[in-house]
## 1
Amino acid sequence: MEDVKSTANAGSNIALIKYWGNRDDELRLPMNGSISMTLDIARTTTSVAFDQTYEEDQVSIDGEAVQGAARERVSKFLDRVREMADTDLPARVVSRNSFPKGAGIASSASGFAALAAAATKALGLRLSDRELSILARLGSGSACRSIFGGFVEWVAGARHLDSYAFPLAPPEHWHLVDVIAIVSAGHKEVGSTEGHSLARTSPFYTARLAQLQDDLPAIRGAILNRDFTVLGTIAEREALSMHGVMLTSCPSLLYWNAGTVEVMEAVRRWRREGVEAYFTMDAGPNVHVLTVPPFAEAIRESLMQIEMVERCIVCGPGEGVQYLESHLF
Ligand code: PMV
């Protein structure tokens, strides 16, 4: 084993075509393909070491020891990595986010992407990016996209080895801006893992999957042609389609709060006034306002005028997984 301790950094990503619902919950094989932009500012750094003196897996996120189900999820993921390296050494995992966790910025995406990269490197495994994407997917579906930078597509696939992400275009291809309006930094009530398993209970789910047959190629084309109007129009409707499924699931999932709706209304008002911006939300209340550089600062300032907006994080397209020489412990 060459690397005893390794550290990796990965960006969160904002889905333009969302992943919602699995064909296989255990393997996190999605019902549909999805497309996202990896973010430059909202990122996770994770250091991992394997050593027999740890006795059991120790996990800390943002300075707090992680226990219970969250630690189990990390341990289960590490078991996969240990199996690949033929070892049973316990691990110490220390992770830091540049954003509040569990609030609709996908900390699980950047978290499991960084963990997959750091853990495999620490055990001396040399995986291709595709293999890393497949592995990261087992921790959190959207993590498979965060292995890559820029604009990324996840091919749904029907089996474990067929379901992975690949880069559509590098970060420098297009300087889109994602102004994330944080309307609640609290932890969400129903995590996405549970949410995915409810997707099928919505009568609108089949209609959503049918619509994606058109929307996936349309967003892919809009990225390649840098057509912001097409991208934004479809991304906004697509987010509402996913939330429509969430709202009509049994039990119903409502991820929005009053601030979410206020920002959505404001974005539409600004658009009528000539500001090109569109909104999208993942499984949480925060709103990602997609725009292009000339409008970004004015949008950030206007968002900060909204009482329920606590703060804004202005992101652009970011790099994929990066390995760092300095460690968190
Ligand atoms: O990767 P998960 O299980 O946290 O699911 C992510 C689901 C959404 O963020 C709502 C959509 C997406 O594609 O990122």
Note: The first strand starts at residue 5 and ends at 17.
## 2
Amino acid sequence: MTNNIPETINAILFDMDGVLYDSMKHHAATWIEAFKKYNINFPKEEAYLNEGSTGDFTIKKAIKQICNREATPEEINGIYEEKTRLMHLRPKADKIPGMQALMKRIRDTGKKIIVVTGSKQPILLERLHEDFGVHPDEVVSGYNVIHGKPHPEPYLMGLKKAGFAANEALVIENAPLGVESSVAAEIYTIAINTGPLDKKVLFDAGASEVFDKAKEVDEFLEKLL
Ligand code: MG
């Protein structure tokens, strides 16, 4: 399922990890290390396949798949705490090239910008204002939702914050669960494939377009806005 292209776009909703920041390699490495502390071998690809969901979702799913049992509350809290601690030790994530300029151009057209992320990582959330001029009021994070992506709640909340309907918005995502969340919220969704997954995974999740670079997104949006 994909959604129709809006006649008028009034709001652009950006995902954060893998769209604004080249942070996924840090997430993947810290997931692997945090699980290792609990003697669980977390496969790297899972980090990319689960991207956009909450930490709880990733931990519960991995323990079910790998250990064939439910995660304990101690594991859910402990693994996420360890991951957060390790994230703070990682080098600062680079911005995805071209995204700062793209966001500025969108802002100059007067369109509303909202960032919708499942992340609870203060290290990145705090940088959004400094790097992209995104005010904390313009962010939906993992702290604000009950259900993470792929549930539509995060993007529905993003629309509410923007003050526009689904058919007046566009989402830029990079992860299959993020695309599913946005498509379920009935928003026209395009993807930028900044990770190691095949493009097909993003089309299968419901993305209407899949691009490799911010420049291609920029050219596509220029025609639309
Ligand atoms: Mg992402």
Note: Strands lie at 11-14, 112-116, 139-140, 169-173, 188-192, 209-211.
